[in-house]
Each structure stands twice: as structure tokens, then as C-alpha cells.
Amino acid sequence: MGNVIDLHTHSTASDGIYTPTELLQQAHTIGLRVLALTDHDTTNGLDEASSMARHLNIDFIPGIEINTDVGNNEIHVLGYCLEYQRPQFQQVVQVLRDARTRRGERMVELLNEQGIPISWKRVRQIAQGAVGRPHIAKALVEAGIVQSISEAFDRYIGRNCPAYVPRYKLAPIDALHLIRSANGLPVLAHPIDLPGIDELHKWLPELVKAGLAGLEAYYGPYTEKDEQQLRAIADQYHLIPTGGTDFHGPGIHPTPLGGRFVPLEAVERLKEAAAKLKGSEPPAFVLPAPVEEK
Ligand code: AMP
Ligand code: ZN
Ligand code: FE
Ligand code: FE
After folding, report:
1. pLDDT band for position 1 (50/70/90)?
2. Domain that holds residue 147
3. Which of 14, 157, 252, 253 to mutate to test the pocket of ligand 1 (most atoms within 8 A of CB)?
């Protein structure tokens, strides 16, 4: 039997290529039983995805991915089993999304100042939801400035590149609290890519104390050795080892939808933890002032 679970995917609500409906249709075609949609800083794809999932008899987990910055490092926090309709949660997520829009605009300005003629209008057409660098990369490819998305990142919009602008600086701990404010389960995404295994040991104690529930151990391209190492760390901190592909559609991440084995135990443990929180009044969250640029 092939893989039946994917807990890390993106749609057109952020920087994925397929709409939530198309994503679920593909999941159905390849025989997935459980899917989580985890768009960057938005839950706008979740209603459509969950109704399509119901239709296709796929177990759907509403999620999000929040990118946070720590100095020159990034930490991405996934949130699962969110009560995402909570108004206060939506308000904060909207602030993050607005910041993404302004940052995208600024990156286009920088490109223009460097003589690269792509328009914000076109980027906005490509981005149907939350704006991300992949949308700008696509506009650069379209305009013939670069040959590929990865060349766009390498030459213009990757960290330390001439048109890179940092995101709104939310600290990892704030992302955790934000997810908890919707009774969601915070999970550290792709811990070896970001933050890196050494940083991980520096950060985990504080994050676990703040309610971190899991660690993405079965991630897209990770080797068996990576996986074992992360499972051991998850055990050590009593975290749920979760997993997924980070599927965005062709050209953005290498692993195809459902292309990574994730054990059913991950889903069972997430649901068990979510059931304990369901219906309870979550801790309130107030958006802190942005972390100062170093
Ligand atoms: P943003 O959240 O706008 O900073 O964009 C980050 C997203 O861009 C990541 O989540 C990836 O999906 C994608 N990305 C980052 N680096 C690369 C790269 N070198 N090539 C292709 N996609 C990338
Ligand atoms: Zn992305
Ligand atoms: Fe990520
Ligand atoms: Fe992702």
C-alpha cells in the first residue's frame, strides 16, 4: 500500500499552485486518506478544502504554517486542528497577511530600482491569496529575467540577495501562542532545514515549555538518518513526530504529494491532543510589537 497521509501542503490560498479543490482531488486520485492544508499565514483555503475532503471521504485536518524569524534564522511553525474561525485568531492572521503584501510590494520596488521590470500588479495577479516570494519568482520567470524559480531565489530574492526584504518579524514563541489561541497544536516544521539541528537544541526547551506539541520528523526529502534523529529528539521532549511533503505543486519543493511515509500514529496522537483542548477557552493572544531587526 502506498502512503496515505500528508500533513504539510500548500494551495493557492498562499504560494501553492493548485486550488484547495484541485489539491484534494489529487489527494483522492493517489489514494490519500488523511490530508492537512497548511498555507502560510492564512486559513482562507480551509473551508473549500474541508468541504471537498468531506465529499471525497478524506480525513481533513485544518492547519496553517507561520514563518518566524530569529536573527538570521527562520523557524516555521505548523498549527494543526485549529478552531480557525475564532475572530481574534483571524484578526492576527490578517495582520500577518497584510505585512506580507507590503513586503512583497517593497521587494518589487527594489527589483525595479535595480532595473528589473516586473510589476506589482502582475505579482498580485499571480498571488491569489497570501503573497510570498514564490509569486515574485514566478513573475521573474515569466518576464524572462531568470530561467527558473530557484534561479530567482539564488540571484534576487533569497536571503542576502539584492531584492530580499525580511518578513514581519514574529518570534517563534509568538507563533506558538497564536496557534494555541485557536486551540491548535503547534508543531515545528522541517527542523533540519530550519532552524538546523544545533539551533534546535537551543530552542526546544523554551518552545516545549510554551506548548509545542510536535516536531516534523517525516519531512519530504529527509533521509532515514535524519528521520531517526528527529524521532529520538521528539521522544526526548515528549513531542509528536509528524510529517508531510510541503507540497506546493511542481517546481517549488521536490517531493510529490503523498511522497513521504507518515505513520498513522502521528494523526492519532494529534487528534487525541486536539480532543483534550476542543471547546475549552483558549489563552488569549495579543500581537506583540515586531521583533527589532538585528
Ligand atoms: P516567503 O514566505 O514569502 O518568505 O517565501 C518562502 C517560501 O518560498 C518557502 O516556504 C518555500 O516555499 C519557497 N522557497 C524558499 N526558498 C526557495 C528556493 N530556493 N527555491 C524555491 N522555492 C523556495
Ligand atoms: Zn511556501
Ligand atoms: Fe516551511
Ligand atoms: Fe510549507
Report:
1. low
2. 101-157
3. 252
